[in-house]
């Protein structure tokens, strides 16, 4: 709905901070109501007796409860519950117009998107060079790859590319390849935020138990031994 209906309004607001803030507040309220459709139910708090109250001399006896009155209150509450509307609202479906083409919205972000695509291409190329043993080319691209790891898209791209190589049974690496892969994984995990914990970091878990190198006959070192210090 935002894309379909509010693009013109957002463009008109550019440069006017007060209008933008008002618009953001309206959006925030809509989102909040969507997540919290029911008002909070007030709970009746029963006060605890104070310390030492049982030692008081003038204690009133607990009043006798009338069985008929108690039953009448219970019956009334039961009747109310039976006529109450269902707790979950029926979801209303509606058609949303498609709105302006995405290209129109992303005109200003064109350069950013191009840069992002270039970064992902650099990550893919570098990983290809590493697995093809073209180490000179990989070294040239490596600083750019480490810089690209600041972006979540590049971190995601790294996990996907490495996963492809594992599927192709290319998990046993020589020493140089192992070093490159470990450095990329470490950099990727170093730039991970708490939001990436169940995405990027989780995607790396099966990879760090797959990539390995032979240190000597019968001794294999797996990648997790080099990246397990990350939070």
Question: Can you walk through the features of this model?
Answer:
This protein is mainly alpha-helical and 231 residues long. Among the domains are: 7-35, no CATH class; 102-225, no CATH class. Helices cover 57% and strands 5% of the residues. It has a three-stranded mixed β-sheet. Helix 6 runs antiparallel to helix 7 (135-148).
State the gist of this model:
The chain is mainly alpha-helical and 231 residues long. Helices cover 57% and strands 5% of the residues.
Shape: elongated
Count of DSSP strands: 3
Q: Into which percent range does the helicity of residues fall?
A: 55-70%
- How are the strands ordered across the major sheet? 1-2-3
Q: Radius of gyration in whole Å, from Cα?
A: 31 Å
Unreliable stretches (pLDDT < 50, length at least 5) are none
Mean pLDDT: 80
User: How much beta, percentage-wise?
Assistant: under 5%
Structural class by sheet pairing and helices = mainly alpha
- Separation of the first and last Cα atoms: 39 Å
Which series of helices and strands comes N to C? Answer: HHHHHHHHEHHEEH
Number of helices: 11
Report the major sheet: 3 strands, mixed
Any descriptors?
5% strand; single chain; 3-stranded mixed β-sheet; 57% helix; 231 residues; mainly alpha; elongated
How do the helices and strands line up, and which of them pair or pack?
Blueprint: H1 2-5, H2 7-13, H3 17-35, H4 67-83, H5 102-105, H6 110-131, H7 135-148, H8 152-167, E1 172-173, H9 175-190, H10 200-208, E2 212-216, E3 219-222, H11 224-227
Parallel strand pairs: 1-2
Antiparallel strand pairs: 2-3
């Amino acid at each position: 709905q935002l894309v379909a209906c509010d693009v013109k309004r957002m463009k008109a607001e550019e440069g006017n901070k007060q209008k933008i803030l008002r618009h953001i507040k309206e959006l925030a309220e809509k989102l909040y109501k969507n997540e919290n459709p029911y008002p909070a139910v007030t709970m009746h708090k029963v006060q605890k007796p104070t310390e030492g109250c049982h030692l008081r001399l003038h204690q009133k006896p607990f009043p006798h409860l009338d069985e008929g009155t108690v039953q009448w209150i219970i019956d009334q509450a039961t009747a109310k519950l039976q006529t109450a509307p269902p707790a979950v609202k029926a979801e209303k479906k509606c058609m949303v117009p498609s709105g302006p083409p995405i290209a129109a919205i992303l005109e200003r972000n064109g350069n950013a998107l191009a840069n992002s695509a270039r970064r992902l291409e650099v990550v893919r190329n570098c990983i290809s060079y590493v697995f093809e043993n073209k180490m000179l080319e990989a070294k040239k691209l490596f600083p750019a790859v480490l810089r690209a790891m600041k972006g979540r898209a590049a971190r995601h791209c790294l996990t996907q590319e490495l996963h492809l190589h594992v599927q192709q049974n290319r998990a046993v690496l020589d020493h140089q390849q192992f070093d490159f892969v470990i450095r990329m994984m470490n950099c990727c995990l170093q730039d991970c935020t708490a939001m990436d914990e169940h995405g990027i970091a989780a995607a790396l878990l099966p990879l760090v138990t797959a990539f390995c190198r032979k240190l000597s006959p019968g001794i294999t070192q797996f990648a997790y031994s080099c990246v397990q210090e990350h939070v």
